[in-house]
Structures are given as structure tokens and as C-alpha cells.
Amino acid sequence: MPVRPNLTEGPIARTLFAFALPILGGNVLQSLNGSINAVWVGRFLGEQALTATANANNVMFLLLGAVFGVGMAASILVAQAIGRDDLKQARCVIGTSATFFIGLSVVIAAIGMPAARHVLVWMDTPPAALPFAEAYLRIIFLALPFLYAFTFVTAILRGSGDTRTPFLFLLLAVAFDIGLNPVLLFGLGPFPRMGIAGAATATLVANALSLAAMLLWLRHRRHRLWISRHDRALYAPNLTVLKSLISKGVPIGLQMMLISVAMLAMITMVNRHGVATTAAYGAALQLWTYVQMPAMAIGAACSSMAAQNVGADRWDRVHQTAKSGVLFNFLMTGALIVPLIVFDRHTLSLFLPDGSPALAEAIHLNPIVVSSFLFFGVTFVLSGVVRATGAVVPPLIILALALWGVRVPFASLLQPTMGADAIWWSFPASALVSMLLSVLYYRYGGWRRARMLPAAAEEVAIPAEVPAQVPSPVADVGPTSEPETPAYAAASAVRK
């Protein structure tokens, strides 16, 4: 019988690496999917349609970011319970979280569909692109429950020690999305020509099908965390768990919002230096998106792995997880940074024509900024580890100080003397401060005493009619499992 996913035993570095690779692969898949879809819309429907999707996607990312923190909190709670081998609490968390996520997504979708045009007008969407954006955003709101549910199930599986299954079904969703886009855009075969609405419909259908397939797969495998119809009492919200999800999840979500707002402030300052500088910054951003992915994947993996070991009271493994995560960050992020600096002209010329002023500016700014992602990676890893105990406010404060106490003021106040270079140097300056503060808090802070649940509520109330533990004749899929089907083996070969 395959071994259940267990992040509290075995070699730490090898387990962490195998656990993080599917997360990294999923991040890459999502970025590639967005790029490919943008090519279809931009090249065949025109600039107005591409502008429309950009505006609508900003709304979607904001809505997804708003619940990102709650998903992380649910993942940490499940991971701690799994580390304690407390399936009762893990399944209670899942039931409460599922009710919260699905209920919230339905409410947002119901409000957002009729309000889509008003939201876009408030965002100053160009009038020529407004009809396209409204048609696109209405369907995105309709897709939101599926997007939320997919995000939620993915977070829960990661907390339980399984990143392979989310990667496999994300791969399926991306394949559906890429394949359906041209079919629905242009009305190929028996399908109607939907134009810009076809791109959003492809996203809706792809996520709905992949979510359904993942749920059927988990039910078929009799996953130990699966809540059957006989256990539906677990879907009644547990107020203690719900309070923890919100109180711990909101600060994590605010971190994502702080980053988004800071990036808006930076692009506003960049715009003032003219088209060439903005184009150079935009081209470099395309590369930086991929450079930061290893650190984000490792940080997410460290959070789940540390949370399981916190639950198991294996503090030696918690600290080794942090050390291994920092080491992998330097190795993997550094492996991307070096060629991007050495071959910067070749990589940046993919987005900018040879001889343009923008290309020269991009070659100048890229090595200044790109090295800061090494520092960023350390912060991301250590923040993931300390959050695993429930210490979610200090990482938020550190991020706020780094972005709004260093980066934005540095770039704004020094531009009169340094010009655009003040913007570029603000990235490594803020990243270095963030790393130093994170290291100090990890070394001397009180994160080890933090809790996800109040001490008196370690054992959450479970409905009496729900069995304490559901035997699983088929083990869960996880980082130490052996694939049992050809499809699973094929996915493993692609993975991470």
C-alpha cells in the first residue's frame, strides 16, 4: 500500500524539494496560460479586446487575492492537524472552510455580475474597451465559484502534504483553457463565435471541468479527508474555526494587497519618465515574473511542511525546513538570475526591438532589480515558516515597512537627484531591509509561541453523528506515494 503523505518524517531537503516542484510547475503553467490567451485575444481581436481583458483580470486577481489569505489559513490549520494525526480537526476545518468559501463566492458572483459595468467605469476603463471588458467580466464573475473552489481544494491538499494532485488537475485546467480559447473565440466547428466572451467562457468551462474531475478523483480514491454525504454535519460552520480563518487569513491576504498597491505606485512613477522607460520596465517585468516563482513555490512548501511539524511538535524539523528553504532559494533563484544578467540583451530583445532606447534602458535596469529577488526569496521562505504557527501579523508589518517605509519613499524622494535609477535601486534596498527584519524576527521573535487556534480550543467541537476517523482503504496521493495508474505516472513525469 502506498505511504500516506507525511512531511514530519524522512529527509527534509529531499522531501521539501519534491514537495515544492509541483507548486513551481503550477505557477509556470498559470503564467504560460495567461500569456497564450493574451496572444489569441491581442493578435486576433485587437488592442481594445486586450485592454479589456487586462482591466477585467485586475478585478479577478483582486478578488482571488482577497481570499488567498483565508485559503492559506485553512491550509495551515489542516497541516497542523495532520501533523498531530488529528483527522477529526482536519475534517472539521475543511467543512467550515468549504462552506465559507463557496458561500462567499456565490455572494460575490451574484453582486458582481450586474455591477460589472459600474466596476469597470470606476476603474477608468477606456470607453472603446468598455463593452469588451463588460462582456468578459460578467462571465468571469460567473466563473468565480469554480475558481474559488479550485483554489480552496488546492490549498487543503497542500496542507495535507499533497502537491501532485493539484498540479495534475491544474495541468488539465490549463489544457482545457488553451484548447477552448480559439474554439470559442472564433466559433470553430459546432460552437458559436463568442469573441471576447469566448475567452472568459473557456476559463469558466476549464475550471469547472477540472474541479469536477479532481473531486471525483478524490472521492474515487476515498481520500481520508473526503467529506461524504454521511458526514454533511461537518459543513455546519464551526465558529472557533471560522474566527481563526478570518483573523489569521486577513493579515495574509493584506500582504498580497500591499504588494499589488506598491506595484501600482511604482508603475505610476515609471510612467512619468516616458514611453521608453515604461516599455523597458514592462519588458523586464515579464522576466521577473518567472524569476520570483521558485521563491514563491519554496515558501509555500515550507509553510505546509513547517505547519505539519509544528502540529507534531517536531521543532528540530521546523528549523531544518527553514534552512533548507533558504538554501534552495539561493540555488534555484540564483540559477535563473545569472543567465538573465549574462544574456540580458538576448532575453530582453524578445520583447523589445534591437537598437531601441527601451532595450538599452532595460539592459541597464535589469541587473539592478533582478538581484533583489534573492533577498525577496529569503523573506518569503522565513515568512512561510513563521506563519505556520499562526504568527501572521509580524510578516505583514515587515512587508509594510519594506514597501511603504523604504521602497516607495526611496524611489519618490531620490528621483530628483538619481532620476529613474532611484526607482530601480529601491527594489534591492527594500528587499534587503525586508530580509534583515525577517531574519531578526525568525531568530528573536515570539513566533514559536503563536497559535492558529486559542489554547482552550485546540480540540474543536465535532458533531456527535460524525465518526472520529474515516478509514481509508486507499492511501492519499502525496510526495512520498508511488503512482498507481499510467495517467498518474505520466503526470509525475511532467511534474516539478
C-alpha-based Rg, rounded:
23 Å
Enumerate how many helices there are, as a single number. Answer: 16
Mean pLDDT: 83
Biggest sheet layout: none
Number of domains: 2
The rounded distance between the terminal residues' Cα atoms is: 24 Å
Helix content: over 70%
Keywords: Cell membrane, Membrane, Transmembrane, Transmembrane helix, Transport
InterPro entries: MATE_fam (IPR002528), MdtK-like (IPR048279), Membrane_Transporter-Flippase (IPR052031)
Subcellular location: Cell inner membrane
Region (Disordered): 470-496
Describe it:
- With 496 residues, the chain is an all-alpha fold.
- The chain folds into two domains: 23-237, no CATH class; 249-465, no CATH class.
- The chain contains 16 helices and no strands.
- Helix 1 (12-45) runs parallel beside helix 5, helix 2 (47-83) packs parallel to helix 4 and helix 3 packs parallel to helix 7.
- The chain starts with 11 loop residues before the first helix and ends with a helix.
Descriptive key words:
single chain, 496 residues, mainly alpha, 2 domains, 16 helices, globular
